[in-house]
Please model this.
Amino acid sequence: MAAVGAYLMPNGMFTSVDFIKNSSRGYVLQLSQWQKWDIFSPNPLRRVSDYAIERDAGDRWETEKVLTFDSLPWWKRAKELKVLGRLEEDRWLPLTEPFLRTYCKELPKASGKRIRLVAHSIVLPFRLHELRMVGTTFIPPTSTILGTASCPRST
Amino acid sequence: MSHQNNSHRPEAESVWQYCWFRPISSAGFGLMRLGFGVIGFVTFLLQWSDVMKFYTSAGLLPHNLVDQMVRSAWRFSLLDALSPTLVFLLYLVLLVALVLITVGLYTRIALIVGVLLMYSFHEYALITLDGGDTLLRLIGFILMLSPCTQSITVTNLWKRMELVRTTGKDQPAHERTMSVWPYRLLLWQMIIMYVASSVEKFTGSTWREGSAVAITLHHGDFSRLPTALADALAGFSPAIGWFTILTQLAWILLLFIPILIWIRVLPQASQSVLKRALLLSGVLIHGAIFLLMDVGTFSLTVFVAYLGLLLSEDFSAIRKLLNRNFGASTIVLFDGRCGLCRRSVVVLKSLDWLHRLEFANFREKERKEKHAKHISMEVLDASMHIRLSNGEYEKGFFAFRSVSWHLPSLWILMPFLYIPGVPFIGDRIYATIAKNRPRCESDTCTL
Model:
């Protein structure tokens, strides 16, 4: 538990903690004891995104599938939105292409076409008095293309 | 539930022995193991159609990206080099292991296989993990190390029935205990989790200023609330936020209170009082998160961990609370000359978590006189009778149905027992079994 506790602490705070951390890193990682308890912290994510998979239709992009809290089945919702949220982070961006390819099979019109993942996002306000009237306030959305992939032609 | 021996104190044995090897009831860990198995099984089963997507090279993480994306020194997964077919086979093995963990069959091996496979699946699909997955894995690690196989397992129930068959006596409660060290590991794990969460929140401006809870309630990716309701509840955000931060931080007191008790600054009971208060506040916070937000299994997994933190005195307190409006025990009259009946009593005893049943062998004259004076032996012999707290009797299927009200693990069956037609069929099935059950003259007899 000392190793787990030390692993959670930032580097350079105490020499003794750094020593424990470095000595026990192998134990913590090999036994999957790593942990970071930053749920909704230091600040909850304010960016709220709806996602869409769009197909290249020549002169325009057509929406093939919408991935939102309401469109996803309850048993898939948490995991799928967790993955999608992470694909908006730089660290996970290289996985956008394989992620999109997993949808090729269920999108028949995408056979042999390019598809892309788009996030339509709003940013929730920061102040409490503004959060009391989100329902009556227009928050301008922004759209970001997270990545593209080519679907193989189905035989 | 078995009782721990509370008469042990540090003065009576070495502090080392007391801190690490004092026997405690293994019921809490048994329940935690059961919860771990259920949540693990359901979580992975719901991913059935996504196994290829999340866990194989044909999905999100092709083999050529593994090193770049998720590997560093000391980190590995069995799935790194396996073909999709083999991964799916391992997934099936994991599901089987989780079922065995839940029911408590080959529990030790199932825990080792199940937890190690869970590590591999989690380490491969890091992008999918949330707090619930992490906590489940950490609980699994503690369960894998702990001697948690004595309570609430099919294996132990079978052992108890064999004991009754061969000796006529049930397993003594002290055999369903374990050393205290796994409990301490779990407690420290929860302290680390909550204190780290609290410190992380302190560093965030939205938590300090009181808008953090309002932001989460408005978040369209997981909030179940309509925006208008989230707007209306936003005013409570600062109070809920500070309650969360402070109660999470208070878990650290559980680390120091044993020392203050040991040097007699605080009374012995203060540890239990604080722990129960923190568990209750946790139930409120995580219960609200579960109801208002869809953030995976985190809240449910926290509740599973709480089960492992319950000791005998906590079970007694819960029982006292739940039994406060309950009168005298229900007397179950059974045939002590029938092996099947005695083994059924063992099953009922193992399910009687609320301690609402009292068992009486009607073959013993004294017991018969006390509990069933006016019922003939022939009638008692024909089917199981129970005497309710109001003095009325019920028998057969209807006795079983009444008893089920007192056994929490059977509550899920209750609605079925009241479906029209079920009592008619149930009563006849019961009568057939009762009529054809083998009997013997001695105290030890076989089916």
Notes: The beta strands of chain B are 23-25, 177-179, 330-334, 357-361, 385-387, 393-395. Residues 330-440 of chain B form a domain with the Glutaredoxin fold (CATH 3.40.30). Chain B is about 60% helix and 5% strand.
